[in-house]
Amino acid sequence: MAEEELISLSEAAVIAGMTRDHLGLLARKGKLRARKIGPNWVTTRAAVQEYLRDALKRSKDPLKNKR
Q1: How far apart are alpha carbons 67 and 19 in whole angstroms?
Q2: Tell me: the pLDDT tens digits for 3-13?
Q3: Over the chain, what HEC string results?
Q4: Phi, psi of 66, deg, nearest 5
Q5: Using an 8 Å Cβ cutoff, are 56 and 65 in contact?
Q6: Which of 5, 35, 38, 42 is deepest in the core (most CB within 10 A)?
Q7: In 3D, which of 51, 39, 40 has the Cα closest to residue 15?
Q8: Within its chain, how far is the Cα of 9 from the centroid?
Q9: Of 29, 30, 38, 34, whose CA–CA distance to 9 is shortest?
Q10: What span, in angstroms and rounded, lies between the C-alpha atoms of 5 and 12?
Q11: How far apart are CA 33 and CA 59, in angstroms?
Q12: pTM for the complete prediction?
């Protein structure tokens, strides 16, 4: 994330079609590449797209696609 443009989770929520709070939860769990700057979480467009493409990260059952 060093050279990519950082976006707020509010901006990322519009891209992902999810709420800012849900993306914050994903960031805290490590499922969405993001970092905290002061009290605010930030991510990149690429990280949001990466999360949306990764079915295993998005699944509530991580073994679902391995059965």
Answers
A1: 30
A2: 789 999 999 99
A3: CCCCCCEEHHHHHHHHCCCHHHHHHHHHHCCCCEEEECCEEEECHHHHHHHHHCHHHHCCCCCHHHC
A4: -105, 0
A5: yes
A6: 42
A7: 51
A8: 8
A9: 34
A10: 12
A11: 16
A12: 0.79
Per-residue confidence band for 31, with pLDDT thresholds at 50, 70 and 90: very high
37 alpha-carbon distance from chain centroid: 15
The first and second tokens of residue 21, run together, are 């709070």
Sheet with 34-37, strands from edge to edge, namely 7-8, 40-43, 34-37
